């Protein structure tokens, strides 16, 4: 963390009481950390709204594995967008339902489009995309993803194969 700055804000007393009750339920020990988290969340939302922003996130899917062709279609779409998929995890919830969670990394617009395709597949009962930023550093607004990609190339399962 950088140098701390103190600020003062004026709030309606009832709003402040409601805020205090809310942050107490969430486990905050002081208002400052709660305000910092609110600010960070706002900055993350602004950053991930930019189509060319580099984001990381998860796509969470619940689907009926008995739905005609759903597992094959999910696999096909993931292979078509393999450069966005970092990892997947699959769980059998019951006789009919599966949970699939994909960790994704890429440009916000491409990640959103990929998630929309997956969530829109027939047989997917519920899906959600959550995007965030690899690091939120207000001092460095520019994108470090290109330099980082050169320093740490991602590899797929075949030896020597590189993805960017």
Notable characteristics:
Alpha-Beta Plaits, 164 residues, disordered C terminus, elongated, 6 strands, two-stranded antiparallel sheet, alpha+beta
State the CATH superfamily name of the largest domain.
ACT-like. Chain A, domain 2
- The N- and C-terminal alpha carbons lie at a distance of 31 Å
Structural class: alpha+beta
Count of DSSP strands: 6
The CATH topology label of the largest domain is: Alpha-Beta Plaits
Residue ranges: pLDDT <50 for 5 or more in a row? 138-164
The biggest sheet, with number of strands, parallel, antiparallel or mixed sense and barrel status, is:
4 strands, antiparallel
SSE pattern, N- to C-terminal: HHEHEEHEHEE
Under the CATH scheme, which class of the largest domain? Alpha Beta
Shape: elongated
Report the helical percentage.
Answer: 25-40%
User: What does the radius of gyration come to?
Assistant: 20 Å
What's the number of helices? 5
Overall pLDDT level: 86
Our count of domains comes out at 2
Percentage of residues in DSSP E strands: 25-35%
Q: Which strand order spans the largest sheet, edge to edge or round the barrel?
A: 2-3-1-4
Protein model, in words:
The chain is built from 5 helices and 6 strands. With 164 residues, the protein is of the alpha+beta class. A 4-stranded antiparallel β-sheet has the order 2-3-1-4. A two-stranded antiparallel sheet has the order 5-6. A hairpin with a 6-residue loop joins strand 5 and strand 6. The protein is elongated and about 60 Å long.
